[in-house]
Amino acid sequence: MTPPTPPTPPAPTPAAEADKRASFEREALIHLDSLYRVALRLTGNPAEADDLVQETMLKAYRAWHQFERGTNAKGWLLTILRHAFINEYRRRTRHPETVDIDAIEPFSVFEEVQDDDPQGTFFDRIVDDEVLRAIDTLPEQFRETVVLSDVEGMSYEEIARVLEVPVGTVKSRLFRARRLLQKKLYEYAVGMGYIKGNAT
Amino acid sequence: MNCRECKERLYEYLDRELTPAVMEEIRQHVAECPPCGESFDFEKVFLTFVRARCRAQGASPELRRRILDELLDE
């Protein structure tokens, strides 16, 4: 007697497929711009960012049944994106860091400018591209934290979940990342003559 | 709360990541301490500036179409 063959799972009906697609478009695709912005800062290249986002969306769609409805879809998608980046893209695009971010001393731009420009008006003269360029030169762990916080407006808790680190790590990285970004922009502004630099 | 303690929590304060009681303690200190007030204002200007400069970019219509086409094939 042949053993009974296990039942094959029923193929999704066209109606179920249409429902899945509709809910995916409603809850996941609305975060496309966010995913793209993060991907662009991670890869540093628009074509790679497109591919990374496309791959993320495909993976997310295939795993859509595992997403817990009503929870944070943006965080879930960004986690998938970041894993895809680490596993596949980082090797090809940017090399993993050899920088020891703990050795980077926080620098206070305010202390440099408090006599000449305590209100930071020199920032107004720095254009978008220059800010993005400066973000791109941050060490990767700083860059991803700044992007999730200041570009995407996520809370420390949400960032900690996406980066899979404790909230305390997010706080300390964000503090040092912002100070380093500030220093880079300040040095750029001094170089451009937007503000008088202190001879150091 | 003293100046050093406030400065350590500067970004947490500006990001509204502290409890209401701590937020209030810092708010009071910053209101009464001109050096801290200036440095907090400076950091606030910096964060507003970074956020404003990074917001414009989004995915291209082409990428959106590519993804929608791909989902249809699934």
Give a summary of the structure in a few sentences.
Chain A is mainly α and 200 residues long.
Structural overview:
The complex is a heterodimer of chains A (200) and B (74). With 200 residues, chain A is mainly alpha-helical. Chain A has two domains: 15-92, RNA polymerase sigma factor, region 2, helix turn helix motif (Rna Polymerase Sigma Factor, Chain: A, Orthogonal Bundle); 105-192, Winged helix-like DNA-binding domain superfamily/Winged helix DNA-binding domain (Arc Repressor Mutant, subunit A, Orthogonal Bundle), CATH 1.10.10. Chain A contains nine helices and no strands. Chain A has helices at residues 14-27, 32-43, 46-62, 73-92, 109-113, 128-136, 140-151, 156-163, 167-192. In chain A, α2 packs parallel to α4 and α2 packs antiparallel against α7 (140-151). The relative contact order of chain A is 0.11. Chain B is 77% helix and 0% strand. In chain B, α3 crosses α4 (34-53). Chain B is an all-alpha fold. Chain B has a single domain, classed as Arc Repressor Mutant, subunit A (Orthogonal Bundle), CATH 1.10.10. Chain B is built from five helices and no strands. Classes of the chains: A mainly alpha (200), B mainly alpha (74). At the A-B interface, α1, α2, α3, α5 and α6 of A face α2, α4 and α5 of B.
